[in-house]
Amino acid sequence: MIDKFTIEECKKCPEILDLKIKNLEHAINQSELMISESKMDCESLIFLRRKIANSFQDLETLYLIKEQRNAKKSSL
Questions:
Q1: Which of 2, 10, 25, 46 is 20 to 30 A from 17, alpha carbon to alpha carbon?
Q2: How many domains does the chain have?
């Protein structure tokens, strides 16, 4: 879960927002690749899938911030 400080920084600075989005997208892709290629035990797979689900939620939050930022720009 993204902490409040990070969310506020992402709202203030588009560069931080874009970097955080890219980092999460990369982490999700790499985790999914690990799952597809691995022979992990069940507990590890469940843990990794849970982390991926949390990352997707964080990513959606960041996409929403970006969308709101773009909406403000277009209304000016």
A1: 46
A2: 1
- Domain of residue 9 covers 4-75
| Residue with token string 């964080």 | 58
Q: Note whether 15 and 1 are within 8 A (CB).
A: no
Task: For Cα atoms 33, 42, 60, give the angle at the middle one, nearest 5 degrees.
Answer: 50
User: Residue 21 burial by CB count (10 A; 0-12/13-18/19+): exposed, middle or buried?
Assistant: middle
Model confidence band, residue 10 (pLDDT cutoffs 50, 70, 90): very high
Nearest alpha-carbon partner for 66 in 16, 29, 2: 16
Angle between helices 4-12 and 42-75 (to 10 degrees): 30
